[in-house]
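Dear H.,

Thanks for agreeing to be a second pair of eyes. The structure we're designing against is below in token form, covering all 251 positions.
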């Protein structure tokens, strides 16, 4: 039997909204000046955790019910109330394809609905953690320059040098570096419509490992025609969760 489940407000969007609000509040606290206008030290605060409770109602709604059966739909649905520890079952006169479950946060109006609504509570806690598990933060540095080693006039080539180290100044050896062409950001920067294709650049390699000095080098080639039209190319370079974007264009 097939069952249709719909959500009026996605739970993951609600949780993400709470997390973003908490993050903004913490950033506001961190941006407070260390001293007030009289030179006195300001009190510094942080949010160690946030507990939350979400009350959600789940309601059974009949859809696409035949007109002849519309009069007894409510009666059949009321007999199908799911109680704690019970398994939902539907009468043969009301197939599962004609039913759907709708989840929505509790509001004042939702408490006045029929008795076929199910109520549940979702509890959780957002906990503050140290960035990078308390280890020194990783820094990704990028330097690029023109590099043409042949006479091919159809491409403009650049050499990209990536350096990976931490805030303690130690090089990060044998760490994977990935290169990607950010087509969406490139189209946005150049005011190119989504339905129009843009020739991507060519990478000498898309990923690789840093050497013992935490460095890695690669080459990238851009179509000379688009490069001459002063297209701005956005290239994303990342090592794990450390990401950096660079823009390359003809000056």
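And this is the sequence the design step returned. I haven't edited it by hand at all.
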């Amino acid at each position: 039997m097939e069952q249709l489940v719909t959500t009026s407000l996605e739970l993951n969007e609600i949780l993400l909204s709470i997390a973003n609000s908490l993050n903004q509040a913490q950033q506001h606290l961190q941006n407070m000046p260390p001293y007030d206008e009289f030179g006195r030290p300001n009190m510094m605060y942080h949010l160690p955790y946030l507990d939350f409770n979400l009350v959600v109602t789940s309601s059974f709604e009949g859809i696409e019910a035949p007109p002849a059966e519309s009069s007894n739909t409510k009666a059949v649905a009321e007999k199908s109330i799911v109680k704690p520890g019970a398994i939902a079952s539907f009468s043969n006169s009301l197939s599962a394809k004609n039913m759907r479950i709708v989840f929505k946060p509790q509001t004042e109006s939702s408490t006045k609905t029929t008795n076929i609504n199910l109520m549940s509570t979702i509890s959780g806690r957002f906990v503050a953690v140290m960035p990078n598990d308390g280890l020194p933060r990783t820094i990704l540095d990028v330097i690029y320059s023109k590099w043409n080693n042949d006479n091919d006039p159809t491409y403009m080539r650049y050499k990209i040098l990536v350096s990976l180290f931490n805030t303690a100044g130690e090089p990060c050896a044998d760490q994977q570096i990935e290169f990607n062409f950010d087509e969406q950001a490139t189209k946005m920067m150049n005011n190119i419509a989504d339905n129009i294709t843009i020739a991507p650049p060519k990478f000498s390699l898309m990923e690789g490992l840093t050497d013992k000095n935490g460095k890695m080098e690669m080459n990238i080639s851009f179509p000379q025609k688009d490069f001459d039209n002063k297209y701005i190319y956005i290239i994303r370079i990342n090592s794990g969760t450390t990401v950096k974007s660079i823009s390359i264009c003809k000056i």
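Two observations from my side: The chain has two domains: 4-127, 132-248. Residues 147 and 158 are 5 Å apart (CA to CA).

Warmly,
E.
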